Amino acid sequence: MERRAKVELFERIRREYEFGIGSIKGVAAKLGVHRRMVRQALMSAEPPERKPVVRARPVMGPLIAFIDAILEADRRAPRKQRHTAHRIWQRIVAERPEEKVAEVTVRRYVRERKAELGWTTHTTCVPQSYQLGQEGQVDWYEAWAELSGEQVRLQVFSMRSMASGAAFHRAYHRATQQAFLDAHEHAFKYFQGVFAVLRYDNLKAAVKKILRGYRREESARFIAFRSHWRFSSEFCSPYEAHEKGGIESEAGYFRRNHWVPVPKASDLEDLNTQLLAACRADERRHIAGQKRPVGALINEERAHLLPLAEHGFDLGDISFPRVDGLGCVRVRTNLYSAPVDVGRTVEVRLDPSCVEIWHEGRCIARHERCYERNQQVLELEHYLDVLERKPGALIGSKPLAAWRQRGLWPESYDRLLAELIGRHGRQSGTRQMIQVLSLIRQHGHRRVRAAIEEALALGCSDVAAIRHLAEAADLVRARSTIVELGALSRYERPKPSLADYDALLGQRAAS
Q1: H or E element: which one contains 450?
Q2: Angstrom distance (rounded) from CA 465 to CA 459
Q3: Chain segment 267-288, per-residue pLDDT in tens
């Protein structure tokens, strides 16, 4: 019964006793209540407070002391190494297997207990206003995408203008310092300028050590990058993500609207093209409290941004490894094939998305960067000169297996190789197949594949014919012009007459 209803009932009891029946038994019978309640009403007009009901906890009861001990020990543990409710439940399962309890029950108790201990607090934030071009906020977040049919976890860089609400997003395999700086330059290009101040978390790519107060020991490379682009940096207090709430909410908005469903792309470059289109599409949206769309505001803000630097910052890591006996150079624990002689020293330029190998002033190889460890990234083209001397090594080679995995060795190549071996023998036929593959260097995979398939369709497996078909697209032919027949009438002449010649022949015969 509600307290108000009970107070009203007490009033009726008191009136009935004083002005009505006048006995406890009669009032109880008339109003249908217990005589104990009548006595309570006569003693006080205020109903007594209801005693809290303490229910037995047959499941959690034996575990309360265990959980409380864990939470008490967490008071002295590092902030990021304290128990979650899920971790406490895992320990119960492992250390107290005789106690059967659901995870949701443990979660409920831990939530209540932390509230009693004062661990769950809510912070009041003060709304901020921003001038055009004044501040941008930067952060990383995690997302999944399907690249070439495989689910891949990616790190996504985001930068948001706090005045206009426009934002830029770009995905990378790893959140390295190179990727961090490279993403800045793409963002500056998107915004067509640089913000006066950029606000960050204490990212390892920028901060080496957190000092007292707001002071930070920043990395030398980040300081040089900041000096090159002429912006200032500010860093949030540790564990105070609300100090850059704009980019935090932006990451959630963008993930819900453009990463759901999981995007599909052929590679990372294709995915970033899709993300850039999504950023431009978001310029049409209205943010609450703003009268104009984001696109109109960012166009106005661009006039207040710092101008772009004339040249970009040199982001590549340069090294000079030596080509080993496998025809590879080692870069960050991984091996990348290089088409030069063993023992040569080459220049390697390591970028966030690719590895370039330079020799004698020209780029001789370019690989997609591998972020795993102790892997081999091999290109069959780089071994063709060696395979021409050692044709027996082609079939079981790792570069060939890599091409098969990447879809660069279709079924038509196997058919051509089988026909060449059948006609010329294993060694000579394999050499001729390698000569066909050498055409890829000049004409590319698509044209050579089309030439091979066309030759096989014609019943031909000759190397010279395939070379002709691959080069046919480059042949220059004189284009025939269409001439109207009426325009040729001016060249018409009367048909010749042979009458005089016949008369001359007749005179000779008479003589």
Answers
A1: helix 440-457
A2: 11
A3: 899 999 999 999 999 999 998 8
Instruction: Name the amino acid, one letter, at 454.
Output: E
Convert the pLDDT of each residue in 302-350 to its tens digit.
999 999 998 888 887 888 999 999 999 999 889 999 999 899 999 998 8
Q: Which two tokens stand for residue 443?
A: 């004409």
43: left (phi over 0), alpha (psi -120 to 50) or beta: alpha
Task: Note whether 126 and 149 are within 8 A (CB).
Answer: no
Q: Which tens digits make up the pLDDT trace of 398-425?
A: 999 989 988 889 999 999 999 999 988 9
**Total Cβ atoms within 10 A of residue 495:** 4
- Measure Cα distances from 241 to 78, 100, 201, 203, 281 in Å: 18, 38, 8, 12, 27
Cis peptide before 293 (omega within 30 of 0): no
Task: Specify the pairing of strand 376-377 against strand 362-368.
Answer: unpaired
Residues 153 and 139: their CA atoms lie apart, in Å, by 17
- How many C-beta atoms surround the C-beta of residue 248 within 10 A? 17
Work out the number of other CB atoms within 10 angstroms of the CB of residue 247: 23
Backbone angles phi, psi at 34, to 5 degrees: -80, 150
Determine the distance from the C-alpha atom of residue 307 to the mean position of all C-alpha atoms in its chain, rounded to a whole number. Answer: 28
The three-point CA angle 148-150-153 to 5° equals: 115
**491: three-class secondary structure by DSSP:** helix
**The whole model's pTM is what?**
0.62
pLDDT at residue 141 tops 90:
yes
Joined together, the tokens standing for residue 37 give 């309640």
Polymer length in residues for the chain: 511
Identify whether the C-beta of residue 246 lies closer than 8 Å to the C-beta of residue 141: no
Name the β-bridge partners of 170. 157
CB atoms within 10 A of CB 419: 18
Residue 312 has a pLDDT of 85
Which residue carries 């500056």 as its tokens? 188
CB 85, CB 119: distance < 8 Å: no
- Are the C-beta atoms of 312 and 185 separated by less than 8 Å? yes
**Amino acid identity for residue 153 in this structure:** R
The amino acid sitting at 434 is I
**End-to-end CA distance of the chain, in Å?**
155
Which residues is 319 bridged to in the sheet?
348
Which residues, listed in sequence order, are joined to residue 232 by a DSSP beta bridge?
Answer: 197
> What digits encode the pLDDT tens for the residues 438-480?
999 888 899 999 999 999 998 888 889 898 888 887 766 655 6
Q: CA gyration radius for the chain? A: 41
Cα separation values, 163 from 103, 235, 240, 277, 321, Å: 44, 19, 21, 21, 47
More confident site: 166 or 505: 166
Closest CA to 136 of 231, 240, 225: 231
Contacts of 475 (CB under 8 A, 6+ apart): none
- The answer to whether 297 touches 329, Cβ cutoff 8 Å, is no
d(CA 384, CA 364): 14
